[in-house]
Design goal:
445 residues, SH3 type barrels, Fumarylacetoacetate hydrolase, domain 2, 8-stranded mixed sheet, 6-stranded mixed sheet, 11 helices, globular
């Protein structure tokens, strides 16, 4: 299968671009015209279809096709996107996504303001995002979650009392486990506190609603075009296979996970994983590429299949992430959510291209819509600890919130909101929207 790549900064990235959609020009808005993420939405229970986010609006791709606003490869791409999932569109490759993104940028630019405003007034091509229901962007058959922050991994190893907190293999390969794809849900979905089995502080094995419930601040890459079974993917070709990125909250029941984890995470993870609904296409992030993860002076050199000058030069992304907490008491007090973590993607030890290359290095066939989580993106200091387990030393030390509340673990009705921005001097920052989820109480016995 031929894979197309778009590597150069072009006019869609121009920081001077402005849109005739006013909200897209608001400073620091997640969805300026330089972004144009794609997702699946519906209105009033109607058919789910693809749209592109622009400010507080959604460009309805089906309406654009009906009104003859696309041509050539962009038209082919928009038609493929006119389904309840983005899989057919993503499978067309980078050429198709770049063409659609360019065409959408052209339609939404201020140079088209007069004709587009007139058209939109008569036959709307824009939908208010506040009126839309968002859905999972694609069908995911395979979900893999990596463990690529050395800070997160080492802290967890110490909390679990391991003699070697950082596994010997960690600096030689991107560690991962295969997750449960069926319980991936879109942002806004409530997560039920799971029942499970764990060993308490007295050494007794118990079964009941977990107390040690946690969030994990992560990003995820979504596979566009896959590879044939038995055919690995070279590192310098890995980005060709990444369609785009979203936020991911890999909810964790730590007590269950740590008791059961012999082969890997199981019931401590499979009860729910949330993703943000808008997929930031890989092409939109070209201006934000940066050096790949740095290796320490005493670290082993990466093996040949996980090393290249291109990855060293531009394997990373300048993305800054936050996690905020909104409790029931905060809502009652009419307070906003409180930021409890701030970190950056550069804290990871392995890049997304390295993760994908390693995943396929044994000939494993990746498929369109496959989801690859980064693992918890924790950094070296307290603020950049990207889960409660680290912040509270596994529940030993409570996290004090500004309204006087304390948290050792997440409580019922707590809501976690993940956000992120790609930022680089000289370019307009672009965001990922929200990945938001609230904890519901456990079902009765």
């Amino acid at each position: 299968m031929k894979v197309n790549e778009v590597t150069e900064i072009n006019k869609t990235h121009d920081p001077q671009l402005r849109s005739w959609v006013p909200s897209a020009n608001t400073p620091e808005h997640d969805f300026p015209i330089q972004n144009l993420p794609i997702g699946i939405f519906s209105l009033n229970g109607g058919a789910a279809r693809a749209g592109i986010a622009i400010g507080d609006e959604i460009l309805d791709l089906a309406a654009c096709v009906e009104q003859g606003l696309f041509s050539g490869m962009a038209l082919t791409a928009a038609r493929a996107a006119g389904q309840p999932t983005l899989n057919a569109f993503m499978a067309q490759g980078k050429g198709a996504s770049a063409a659609l993104r360019q065409a959408a940028s052209d339609l939404l630019g201020t140079h088209r303001a007069d004709d587009m405003k007139a058209l939109n007034a008569q036959r709307p091509i824009l939908v208010s995002a506040s009126q839309a229901q968002m859905h999972l962007p694609c069908y995911t058959r395979n979900y893999t979650d990596f463990l690529t922050s050395a800070y997160h991994t080492e802290r967890h190893g110490r909390l679990k009392g391991l003699d070697v907190p950082l596994p010997p293999a960690f600096k030689s390969l991107p560690v991962a486990y295969h997750g449960r794809a069926s319980s991936i849900c879109v942002s806004g979905t409530s997560v039920r506190r799971p029942w499970g089995q764990w060993r308490d502080s007295d050494g007794r094995v118990r079964f009941g609603p977990t107390e040690a419930l946690d969030f994990e601040l992560e990003m995820a890459a979504i596979v566009g075009q896959g590879n044939e079974l038995g055919r690995p993917i070279k590192l310098d070709e890995a980005r060709n296979h990444i369609f785009g990125y979203c936020l991911l909250n890999d909810w964790s029941a730590k007590s269950i996970q740590w008791w059961e984890q012999v082969l890997g995470p199981f019931l401590g993870k499979s009860f729910g994983t949330l993703v943000s609904p808008w997929v930031v296409m890989e092409e939109a992030l070209i201006p934000f590429r940066c050096q790949g993860p740095a290796r320490g002076r005493d670290d082993p050199e990466a093996l040949d299949h996980l090393s290249s000058p291109a990855n060293d030069r531009a394997g990373g992304l300048r993305v800054f992430l936050q996690a905020s907490l909104l409790t029931a008491q905060m809502r009652a007090q009419q307070l906003g959510a409180e930021r409890i973590a701030a970190t950056r993607l550069s804290h990871l030890y392995w890049s997304f291209p390295q993760m994908l290359t390693h995943h396929a290095s044994n000939g494993c066939n990746l498929e369109t819509g496959d989801l690859m989580g980064s693992g918890t993106i924790s950094g070296p200091d307290d603020e950049s600890m990207a889960c409660l387990t680290e912040k509270t030393s596994a529940g030993k030390n409570a996290l004090l919130l500004s309204n006087g509340e304390q948290r050792r673990w997440l409580e019922d009705d707590d809501e976690v909101i993940l956000t992120a921005k790609a930022q680089c001097d000289g370019y307009v920052s672009i965001g990922f929207g929200e990945c938001r989820g609230r904890i519901e109480g456990a079902l009765p016995a």
